[in-house]
């Protein structure tokens, strides 16, 4: 049998059975992990790769598909014939492996059947702390990779005797949150080893040869589905560029990102030539990150149901010169990869929208990343690290308004429940609410910005790694850009300070941190927005009466009971006539 | 608010769902506020109307999503407790069937026209969840955990853009229904493939009261198969395999999420289509036995008559299990039990009518999800807490593949479940002088079995003519008004004294 001769029934059965395995692993990971990042924000994933290290199927955080292939390749290079079924390996190196940044620790378990290496089961989860300069490990102050935490180049965390206590001790000794770190790693070991067992069970049932063929089939299938989708957009070229605020090392200099997309037939190229040289500060990214950004944008644009596996790579080429911010070389720090990836994602989307304007999607708000607060734990004396993934709202799409408050290109992450934060950390959340007039206006508007305000009940070390505070994002096809993200300390007091997107410093008990999560961009002329939708927005506190009139050309009655139709018509006529 | 707006119904989150995580609590409270006025009006009206038509019974109860009953007047105040009560009654049915036949570990498979509901009953207890969804909204009210799959008799087969054969989740429903119904449906459905494979006789739907057409089923599968270069039979085999795979995955994931070994379970198959697919699913999932109740098509309705009054009392109590005294645990359970007894009394039940069950939710510190552990004690001793902790390690290892016996364990919640048994219909007992199945044999027809290499002439039995003690070796087809049961090759069926058809692997 080969992938081309498997009948469409067996193919579907095996596809769903492999899917079952990764979803089972994902469930185990999220339900047994320790850290709130994993169990509340779901910043983790599970993956099945074939014996050659090609990604076959994955579940959880969608962008992790690209790190896995680099990680497994590194493990294969390092161990070769010394890989053992009873072992699991720990890896987080962004250079020799495929991590976006050091806290994304992966566990890789090789799967053997009848003495033959047939696959790998793997899991990535973002750790609350792996050492480094600041609580949470990722900080604005990093100037080289070794500032970003303990590097694990693919070491045995699990052996025939169970947990490798030497590695366990080493990892614990290098973390501010050893229990959570090892609890998450144990969950990863467990889920990959259960996944390996399930896969062996599938080999018992169907034979290892057919299972190997089913891997090819899934990879071929992804290629086929992408090929069909690529044919639905016109051939052409498009370019886009935008800036990150700075690299934190040189606060005054913006960092340029540039993308050129060339689509011909059933092939597409992403070219990052012309982006800024790699920076001293930590906004650099590695190829796994720049590739994941483009592929997720492509999948999101074409069909979010496309499976993200090795098959897609057959139709995609990357041009990404070394030494750029999009392809950093050692020892450049990479911990603030997220805003860079998100901006690249937005730029790729922008290019695709120019190739096929009917399907254009406005970008989500820039300004995602993470906020950390490190506290001394009163019980253990070690630090507790509160870690919040910064989300934003999404941009408008051709069928409707942008969604609120999700991670703008990892669409599954949620904000942490305030009650969990307040129970587990010395923090009070004072406000969490939408910001009026913050959504990018348009025929369809983006999601609104949100403000979250924290008061610390203990002295703490604050770290923020975000972006887009100066340049924000944009609207498409006549839509407007949204309000930008931002951070202020002690707002409304004489100690008020506006903060940059990337900083780390010591703060005192009682200090207040106000963070604004950016809104999403708008799509189409705001003056063509449905009048009732504008009225709803005003009633819901998302749009002011003034903005309804000035931006949308809709006159809302003062008591919000309805719309002044005549006045609205008068305001809107010139706009329609002009268009 | 009550002073200013006395007529206003209030949904207060601290009453609707007093547990941590604001979003789920808000969402649940919003659901309560949305459906509350309608439900309240309806129930009050219903109670009045029932009285007016002279229907006076002490048993006017409403089913809750957790599989228990509550008085209609109380239900009017807690609409969020009843939103998913329909499917829950099927699970209660399975629980009761288990009680009757003496089985503690069951997994229910309720396969109807559009979907299949799967739920696990372990140790005689229905599984509860606090992470439900209704109409896309999160609901945190404890409810019967049910895994729903878009796979039923009317589920449509189609060809995906990847060229593979897909089944569901779209369904042809009852109208137009499967192609073989002859009501204008042209899509090939699961039922159509069962007709082509000989499992269902379309001339005998509803005991012959509805006439279907085997030809229409063949034509539908021929159309589906043509596009894949498959014969109608190959297409039918494919539809059957794919839909069985979906259901088998659902069964496995549901059992694995609880760390359950399928080998200890009985598959309770009902809904119109459940008994047809059950033996094959049991084989795929390694469940050794299947129970098919006397009237699979009306199991959910039966469940409503078999359920008990249930109230759950919960208290958050975050403490390390090795740092709390047994006396303190006992005291806190005592408070919950006091509330339970008071409520039972207010509902008119005495101390002898009620049963109480204690549970603790345990986890390792830092974990966000707990495991509910039964407390096999009334007054705990220190050693009981230690042994509970060790049981937790074992259970954690079963479910997640690892455990941490050297780490401390935390109690998160204490829970007391109050159960008041309500009189159920009499269990059906059939006289068993005639135990041979021969009298029930009404003919034979060609049916397809993969393990037999194709079609085999297979005996057909009439369920209503089967007596207790009758034994039927597979392959066999058993027809009845509301369902069709298939016994596969290598399986054997026995009618037990409660008129339940038990299938097991022949030894």
Structure description:
The complex is a heterodimer of chains A (579) and B (507). By secondary structure, chain A is an alpha+beta fold. Chain A has a 7-stranded antiparallel β-sheet with strand order 2-1-5-4-3-6-7, sandwiched between helices. The longest helix of chain A has 29 residues, at 178-206. Chain A is built from 12 helices and 20 strands. Chain A is globular. With 507 residues, chain B is an alpha+beta fold. In chain B, strands 3, 4, 5, 10, 13, 14, 21, 24 and 25 form a 9-stranded mixed β-sheet that branches. In chain B, α8 links the parallel β13 (266-270) and β14 (289-292). The radius of gyration of chain B is 25 Å and the shape is globular. The mean pLDDT of chain B is 88. Classes of the chains: A alpha+beta (579), B alpha+beta (507). The interface between A and B is large, with 42 and 39 residues.
């Amino acid at each position: 049998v080969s992938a081309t001769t498997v009948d469409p029934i067996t193919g579907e059965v095996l596809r769903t059975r492999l899917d079952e395995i990764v979803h089972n692993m994902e469930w185990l990971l999220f339900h047994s992990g320790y850290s709130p990042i994993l169990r509340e924000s779901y910043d983790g994933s599970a993956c099945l790769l074939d014996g050659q290290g090609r990604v076959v199927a994955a579940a959880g955080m969608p962008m992790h598909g690209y790190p896995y292939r680099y990680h497994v390749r590194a493990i294969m290079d390092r161990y070769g014939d010394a890989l053992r079924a009873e072992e699991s390996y720990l890896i987080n190196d962004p250079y020799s492996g495929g991590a976006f940044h050091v806290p994304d620790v992966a566990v890789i378990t090789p799967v053997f059947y009848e003495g033959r290496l047939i696959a790998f089961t793997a899991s990535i989860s973002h750790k609350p702390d792996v050492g480094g300069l600041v609580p949470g490990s990722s900080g604005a102050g990093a100037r080289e990779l070794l500032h970003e935490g303990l590097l694990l180049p693919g070491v045995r965390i699990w052996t025939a005797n169970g947990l490798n206590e030497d590695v366990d001790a080493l990892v614990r000794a290098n973390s501010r949150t050893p229990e959570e770190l090892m609890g998450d790693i144990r969950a990863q070991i467990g889920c990959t080893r259960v996944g390996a067992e399930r896969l062996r069970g599938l080999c018992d049932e169907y034979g290892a040869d057919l299972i190997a063929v089913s891997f090819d089939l899934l990879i071929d299938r992804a290629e086929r589905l992408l090929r069909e989708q690529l044919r639905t957009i016109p051939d052409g070229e498009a370019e886009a560029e935008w800036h990150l605020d700075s690299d934190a090392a040189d606060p005054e200099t913006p960092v340029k990102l540039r993308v050129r997309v060339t689509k011909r037939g059933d092939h597409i190229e992403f070219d990052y030539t012309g982006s800024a040289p790699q920076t001293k500060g930590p906004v650099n990214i590695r190829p796994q990150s720049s590739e994941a950004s483009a592929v997720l944008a492509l999948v999101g644009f074409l069909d979010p149901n496309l499976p993200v596996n090795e098959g897609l790579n057959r139709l995609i080429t990357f041009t990404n010169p070394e030494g750029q911010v999009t392809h950093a070389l050692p020892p450049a720090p990479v911990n603030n990869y997220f805003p860079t990836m998100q901006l690249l994602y937005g730029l790729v989307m922008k290019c695709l929208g120019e190739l096929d304007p009917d399907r254009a999607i406005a970008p989500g708000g820039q300004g995602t990343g993470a906020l950390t607060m490190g506290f001394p734990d009163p019980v253990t004396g070690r630090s507790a690290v509160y870690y919040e993934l910064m989300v934003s709202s999404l941009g408008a799409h051709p069928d409707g308004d942008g969604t609120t408050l999700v991670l703008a290109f990892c669409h599954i992450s949620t904000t942490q429940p305030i009650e969990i934060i307040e129970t587990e950390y010395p923090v009070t959340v004072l406000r969490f609410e939408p910001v009026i007039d913050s959504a990018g206006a348009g025929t369809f508007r983006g999601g609104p910005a949100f403000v979250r305000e924290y008061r610390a009940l203990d002295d703490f070390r604050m770290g923020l790694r975000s972006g887009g505070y100066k340049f924000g994002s944009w609207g498409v096809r006549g839509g407007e850009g949204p309000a930008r993200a931002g951070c202020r300390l002690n707002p409304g007091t004489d100690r008020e300070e506006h903060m940059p997107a990337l900083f780390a410093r010591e703060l005192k008990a009682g200090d207040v941190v106000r963070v604004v999560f950016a809104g999403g961009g708008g799509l189409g002329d705001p003056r063509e927005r449905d009048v009732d939708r504008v009225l709803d927005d005003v009633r819901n506190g998302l749009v002011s009466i003034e903005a309804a009139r000035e931006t949308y050309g809709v006159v809302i009655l003062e008591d919000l009971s309805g719309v002044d139709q005549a006045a609205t018509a008068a305001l809107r006529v010139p706009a329609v006539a002009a268009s | 608010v009550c002073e200013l707006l006395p007529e206003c119904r209030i949904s207060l989150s601290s009453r609707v769902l007093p547990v941590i995580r604001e979003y789920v609590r808000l969402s649940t409270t919003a659901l309560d506020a949305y459906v509350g006025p309608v439900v309240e009006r309806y129930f009050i009206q219903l109670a009045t109307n029932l009285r007016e038509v002279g229907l006076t019974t002490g048993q006017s109860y409403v089913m809750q999503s957790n599989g228990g009953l509550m008085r209609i007047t109380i239900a009017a105040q807690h609409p969020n407790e009843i939103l998913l009560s329909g499917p829950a009654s099927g699970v209660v049915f399975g629980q009761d069937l288990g009680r009757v036949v003496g089985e503690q570990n069951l997994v229910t498979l309720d396969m109807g026209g559009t979907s299949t509901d799967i739920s696990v009953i372990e140790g005689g207890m229905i599984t509860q969840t606090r992470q439900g969804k209704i109409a896309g909204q999160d609901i945190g009210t404890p409810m019967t955990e049910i895994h729903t799959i878009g796979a039923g008799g009317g589920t449509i087969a189609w060809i995906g853009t990847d060229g593979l054969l897909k089944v569901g989740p779209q369904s042809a429903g009852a109208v137009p229904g499967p192609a073989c119904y002859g009501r204008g449906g042209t899509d090939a459905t699961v039922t159509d493939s069962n007709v082509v494979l000989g499992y269902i006789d379309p001339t005998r739907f509803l005991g012959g009261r509805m006439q279907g057409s085997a030809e229409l089923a063949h034509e539908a599968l021929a159309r589906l198969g043509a596009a894949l270069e498959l014969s109608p039979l190959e297409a039918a085999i494919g539809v059957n395999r794919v839909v069985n795979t979906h259901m088998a995955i659902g069964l496995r994931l549901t059992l694995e999420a609880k760390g359950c070994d399928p080998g200890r379970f009985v598959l309770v198959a009902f809904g119109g289509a459940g008994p047809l697919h059950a033996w094959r699913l049991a084989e795929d999932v390694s469940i050794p036995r299947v129970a098919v109740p006397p009237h699979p098509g009306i199991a959910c309705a039966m469940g409503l008559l078999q359920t008990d009054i249930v109230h759950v009392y919960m208290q958050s109590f975050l403490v390390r299990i090795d740092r709390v005294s047994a006396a303190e645990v006992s005291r806190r359970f005592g408070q919950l039990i006091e509330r339970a007894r008071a409520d039972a009394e207010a509902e008119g039940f005495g101390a002898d009518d009620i049963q109480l069950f204690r549970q603790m939710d345990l986890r390792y510190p830092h974990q966000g999800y707990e495991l509910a552990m039964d407390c096999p004690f009334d007054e705990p001793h220190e050693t009981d807490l230690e042994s509970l902790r060790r049981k937790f390690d074992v259970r954690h290892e079963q479910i997640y593949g690892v455990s941490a016996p050297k780490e401390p364990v935390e109690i998160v919640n204490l829970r007391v479940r109050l159960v008041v048994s309500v009189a159920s219909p009499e269990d059906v007992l059939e006289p068993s002088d005639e135990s041979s199945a021969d009298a029930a044999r009404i003919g034979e027809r060609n049916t397809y079995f993969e393990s037999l290499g194709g079609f085999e002439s297979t005996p057909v039995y009439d369920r209503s003519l089967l007596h207790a003690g009758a034994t039927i070796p597979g392959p066999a087809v058993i027809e009845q008004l509301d369902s069709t049961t298939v016994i596969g090759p290598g399986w054997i069926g026995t009618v037990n004294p409660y008129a339940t058809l038990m299938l097991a692997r022949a030894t």
